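Progress against Task 2.4 (sequence-to-structure conversion) is shown through the following example record, which the project officer requested during the mid-term review.
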Amino acid sequence: MKTGPDYCRNMLVVGVLALTTPLMGCSRQTDSRSTPQAASDHKPAASGAHGDTHAPTSSPNAASAPYDLQFIDTMISHHQGAVSMADMAAMKASRPELKTFALEIVADQNREISQMTKWREQWYPAAPPAVNMDFPGMMGSMQGMNMGHMNSMSGKDFDRMFVDMMIPHHEGAIVMARDAIGRAEHSDLKNLSQEIIFKQQGEISRMSQWAAEWR
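C-alpha cells generated for the chain above:
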C-alpha cells in the first residue's frame, strides 16, 4: 500500500471533494418562495427570474396551447413578478402606508396564483408550461422590472422607484385581463379577469397619487 506525505495529501483532497460535492449541488438550486406555482412537474415559472433587467421568455410551443392555459401560466408568471417586488417593499419601504400596501399585494396575488394553480390542475393536468410573452400587456410590463436596482435603493428613493415600477406592471395585467374577458373559454377566468381589472385599477390610482406627492 502507498504511503508518504504526497499520498496522504492526495487522499485528503479526495475526501474533501467527496464531502463538498453534495453541498455544491445544493447551492445551484434556486431559492424557493412561498408563491404557489402551477401543477406538479410542469410549473410555468418564467425563465429569467425577476432579479435583473432580463424579461422572462416564452415556454416552448406556448402559442399552440389552449388560450386559457396560456393565460393561467402567463398571469401566474406576471403575478410572481409583482409578489417579488411587493415582498421587497414590505421589508425596505420607508413609508408605513407603502409597507401595508405591499403586504396587500402579496396576499391578493398569492391568493389568485393559488386559485389559478387549482384550475390548471383541474383543466390541464400535467400540461407543459405555456408562458406566452406575446400576450397583450405582458412583455412591456415585465421588461421594466429591475429588482437589482430597486434593491440597491433605500428610503424615499426606494418608495418612488417601487411605485414607478409597479404602476406599469399593473397596467400590463389589466391589458391581459381585458383580453381574457373576450377570449377565455372558462367563465371562472373571465370573472377573475374582471376582479383583476377592478382591483388593480384602484391600486394604480392610489400609487399614482403617491407618485405625484413623493416627487
